[in-house]
Amino acid sequence: MVKMANKKTRGPDKTQANTSDIVVKKLDDATDIVRQPPVFTNDSKYICIASGRQIGIYSVESAEKVHSLEEHTFDVIGLAIKDDNILLSCDASGETIEWNINNGTTLKKAPLVVAGIKEFHSFHYPGNGKVLVATPSTYTTNMSSLWIVDSHTRPRKLFADIKSTPHSIAFGCNQGNGSLVVVALQDHSVVVKDITNGVDKKHMTDQRKFTCVALHSEKLIMATGDISGRILIWHDFVHKSRPVKTVYHWHTLPVNSVCFSSEGEYLYSGGSEKVMVKWRLGMSRKQFLPRMGSSIKYIVNAPDNICVATSHSDNAIRFIDSTNKINRAIIGLVKHDPIRGFADTEPIKESVMPTGLVFDPRSHGIFFNAQAGFLQLFDPQKNSLIFNMDVANRNVLTDERNLVIGNAEVLRVAVSPTGEWLATLEVWSNMSAGYHDMNLKFWRYDAVQANYELNTDVTMPHQDRVTALCFQPGLLGTEMPCLVSIGRDLKFKIWRLVDDTDIYRQKESWSCDVAGDFRKLTPSALSFSEDGSLMAIAFQDTVTLWDPTSINLNTTLSHTLVQEPIELMEFGRDNCFRYLVCASKSALYAWDVISQGLVWKVGQLHSSVRCLVPDPKSCYMAAVLQNSEVFVFSPSSSKPVHSVPKMNSSEPIAALFVPRPNPLASGPEWLINSRLLIVDDQQEFLCVDDVSSAGFNQKLTTPISHMDSLPWTPFSAMKAEKQISAAKQLVPVVHQTSGIQGYKSVQSLLETSASALPPMSRICSLFMSDLMIKHGPKAVTAKVNSVDRTSTDLPLSNGHIDSKTQDFSEETTLQKLLTLDCQWLVETVK
Amino acid sequence: MASFKKTQIRSLPKIGQKVTADTLYWRKLNFPVTVKEFGPIDYIDVMPIEPYFIAVSSAAKVQIYNPITHQVHRHFTRFKEAAYGASIRSDGKLVIAGCDEGHVKLFDIGSKSLLRIFKGHKGPVHRCKFTTDNVHVVSFSDDKSVALWDLPSETEIIKFSEHSDYVRAGCVSSISSDLFLSGSFDHTVKLYDARSPTGSTISVDHGSPVESVLMYPSNSIFVSVGGTELRVWDMLAGGRLLARVSQHHKTITCLHLASDGKRLVTGGLDRHAKIYDVQSYQVVHTLDFPSPVLSLGITPDDFTVVAGMANGLISMQHRQTQAEARALNPKQSLKVQKKSQTAYRFRLNADFRSVNRTFNPATDVEVATKTDTNFVSRYDMFLRKFQYSKALDTVLTPYIRKKKPAITVGVMHELIRRNGLKSALAGRDDSSLSSILTFLARNINDPSHANIIIQVANTLLEIYESSSLTPQSEKLFLQLQEHVNREVEYVKHLMEIEGMLHILLASTTTQARRSSTYVVQGSPVKPMLPSASAAANATMIFNVG
């Protein structure tokens, strides 16, 4: 029988670190870029995008970031172009900053003073020093009041109780006398105010709620969208009390955004159908741009009328050219739309980020959910997205008006210890039809192509929801990899790679090796010991230990003190390899798998444990509670090394220890080699880190030349267009998309058995010529413009020689030498 | 803009013989032309250069056939008794043959004259070969000796008498003129080097009388056959056994290389010729013959396969030419033709339009071939336009319904996903309803599609349960019910068998590991189990009829 053990701590000595140095920071670069509509500059060359407290200025031509403006201490609520080169921004505390767009410097800072109000919802700048700001409404929540602020007069309240979204306020000018017209949306009505003439109007239609409004900047026409998908164009709405309206109705879902082209000829509209509709006003013609990937939040038209930018809910801004094609995109970290249709008993993690954070040892990135059916890899060192991968490969379906249509969602992800294999589980379910699909897909990383290739697709791997997937760690290179899955159909299954090669093709595929169960109990958690020699599966309150190779049950661990079903379970790492930490609803405890005893138990936690993550580089482990408390402890003892109090109101979803590229010089032991990342239910990244490490505040992006933004001067003419440096550039092997010189022929020579080879004299010349550098006319040009690397082969030398002609001639002689060399060789062989 | 993704059609791997590239290749051999000789065909040799004449030795004569016309081109009859092992020189001008009286005779193919007689063997000579330098001849004789002869002087250079039984197999190296192999009925294969007259350099034991030997073009490996076994030996490692293959169930008599040295062919007394891959020694194809195969010949271009049999038949098979294939299968060839006819689009070159000069059709017309990559099937087109009924109609045509049910099921699956199945099934007339019902009845037993078919059937019943039906549709609904009942019955039987198996397995596992307290279910025996899906069939409720 298992006994409660009162053992000495076996783990490392707990050095009492100065814990005040440890802080929780928000990763700023990973915030969304689509919360506020972007703004084009007057020359349409740049686009300004607010993301959290930052403002990014991007080039429209290349979609690259030119400047990053960071002065605000609160989230930016509005951007406007004041003059040709001046950007005006305002944050939630009312501080406005004027920036120089060309060099990114701050010109002026000023606070907005509106009747002592400290919080602002949105910010608009109609011009002439007048500013429109929305503030929280005094009586009703979620509503705003609109104020006009002028430099010489007192702030004036225009409307009360209007909607607070940035798209419910619009302004334009009256053609007659150029006075400012402001319109705003209330739930069922549009309120209009002509500032100079003092005209006030309120228009109502029917019971459909308005969602967005747009006003043309010169002509006096207004467009409104509502929740039924109808767009109304209003003419002469300032003076008439029953203005003429035109109805444009294509959308079935609420219209999220409407926008006029600068000439007022066209109207753009978009919504959750993921289709941008381009209406020609006054005619019935319309153009569509379907399958834009994600629902449209905002549409912004460039002043030069050539380009339209759309903000999408997947955190991307796409540029559409005049031929109605997407030609560029600014893509941020994708936020996953929470899955709808789950039962209330499911934890919130299952709908917000079902995959959790999965570390990829190959790229040192993190895998987690992107859009429905997609998976993204995020690099925490550079705070950038590495790629976004389509796992489901299905058309993204949109809802119908009264019908929620679900898409396939990636629910589980596992990466093999070497990073070569990726296992994804995607689920599509239709609760109303009672039918669901499940696919377990195995992807292999192809280093030459630098992408993942689908190897095996298993339909319905389990009959019910799969709870966990885990690769067996610690295998030697010669052993076939192995994946374990547990599901609610009471089974655990072991999947192994099977060599299915025959003489026609080389093929490996995954197949189910063993399916087992244990006393018809539901498996709830799964963990491998660090060396992969022991597999633990938790069945309710019982822990079973298995030998992964033979699938023999070694032991079952259970105790009267721990009766609650286990929710999370992890083996200790490093010198705490023998401890198995389990978390149930209210308790955290550890088993010693060698002596098979309960080592310690911490009961009555403040709230349930949400994540239990081991640090791969040390023996420590972190437990993140639902109320966002964090405890870092060594599995050998119940006393935490460090604890973080409640951070904020948000609820943590997933956590992960991310290894550092360079270990810290000093600090607590668990922070030296890695830091802790936590994702909350808003999908914001929090980082528990040492104060001293500058980690993510450092800018790692390379500066971009500002050539085209500089005014022409005699000095700028002297500056070279291209700069050539003799410094060697590092060629990233991972991103090499095409092969190595002669790779194929060497490969075929090595793979064919010696017996089957034709006589050497026959293949020698062919083989040697394959290895030679081919100098077709194309390759030569590629060498000359060595800046754009279009040549398909590995560049042999990266140091550029000053004179290009010399470079070229030298290479031809080299080529001659090579040819001579080979001919000599061929002859001797013959 | 993301492009429209095609509907995924789930195809399951087919059970049965796999169609590989090799089976397709060797299946293209035409119906054989047969020639009857008087005695068993002892040996067939193919001239290594065009026109690939075939030398056939049988009874007391050597005949040279034209492989295209199947006519005898030359015949040599100057043998008193049986002639053996006629072999043509690599330049195609000379032929040698052994005979029962122990002589080796050299003939000129052009003039039919007997040029040389090599005398010296005391027993019949069954095999003889020209060496690579074309001026020596090696002979393998029943007097247990192997001799090397000089062609111009008609003299014996070396004689090896190491074997203890008849030497009935031999071959020469394709690279060195000094190396040759002999295989004997004393179970050994010996490699000789003419430069070391003391004896054989390698000797290996085959285990049964050796019928034929062969050296690979690379000269690093040789193969011997005898008994029912094929053995592969590594020459560079001093005669290490690399592989033992036993695919025939009677004695293997002959060996040949095909497909430019990538395939090995063996013929045996069991009337089969097996084709092996030379890297893995797996059989990739089998050719059948009406009588025990004694000898094989394959032209270097694989165009003709000649087999000599024990009853004196020579079978010559040609590879199908394209014209023949077209004549045999006009329908398929039409498709191929269509494919090869590309659609052209002509347009004027850009710089011709800008510069005012005379028109030159050779340079100024660009020809663009139509690319077929963006092919969108009709059902995808309708799905794209959200026309669900039409999409379902297109996959219910008799051809797709019967020949490619996976497409129909795939589209139904997509409709379920899009929540459009109800609207696609509703409001159908009698004929289209009957086509759906017959499809469902036919495929509801298929375990790979069952879950989707059941879903569709349930939806169909839900829609049409209250509407009045014609007698014809009613009959079809009853038929569907009949199918389901039968499947339920069948699954019941299967589950009974599964239960029996479980008892057996459980008893064996508990015997094996009495201490353990659990039972791992499943994997060692995988019975055919459409169980879960088919069991769900039972829950279907039929309200009609």
TrEMBL record, chain A:
SMART domains: WD40
Top-level lineage group: Eukaryota
Database matches in InterPro entries: Beta-prop_WDR75_2nd, WD40/YVTN_repeat-like_dom_sf, WD40_repeat_dom_sf, WD40_rpt, WDR75
Repeat recorded as keyword: yes
Alphabetically ordered keywords of this record: Nucleus, Repeat, Ribosome biogenesis, rRNA processing, Transcription, WD repeat
WD repeat-containing protein 75 second beta-propeller domain boundaries: 357-682
Protein name: WD repeat-containing protein 75 second beta-propeller domain-containing protein
Organism encoding this protein: Daphnia magna
The organism's taxonomic lineage, starting at the top: Eukaryota, Metazoa, Ecdysozoa, Arthropoda, Crustacea
Automatic annotation (TrEMBL), chain B:
Domain U3 small nucleolar RNA-associated protein 15 C-terminal, chain residue ranges per copy: 367-504
InterPro entries according to UniProt: U3_snoRNA-assocProt_15_C, WD40/YVTN_repeat-like_dom_sf, WD40_repeat_dom_sf, WD40_rpt
A Pfam family of this chain: WD40
Ranges occupied by WD repeats: 118-159, 245-286
Residues of the signal peptide: none
GO annotations of cellular component type: nucleolus
Record keyword Nucleus present: yes
Subcellular location: Nucleus, Nucleolus
Keyword tags: Nucleus, Repeat, rRNA processing, WD repeat
Superkingdom of origin: Eukaryota
GO biological process, one term: positive regulation of transcription by RNA polymerase I
Function: Ribosome biogenesis factor. Involved in nucleolar processing of pre-18S ribosomal RNA. Required for optimal pre-ribosomal RNA transcription by RNA polymerase I. Part of the small subunit (SSU) processome, first precursor of the small eukaryotic ribosomal subunit. During the assembly of the SSU processome in the nucleolus, many ribosome biogenesis factors, an RNA chaperone and ribosomal proteins associate with the nascent pre-rRNA and work in concert to generate RNA folding, modifications, rearrangements and cleavage as well as targeted degradation of pre-ribosomal RNA by the RNA exosome.
Name listed for the protein in its UniProt record: U3 small nucleolar RNA-associated protein 15 homolog
Provenance organism: Daphnia magna
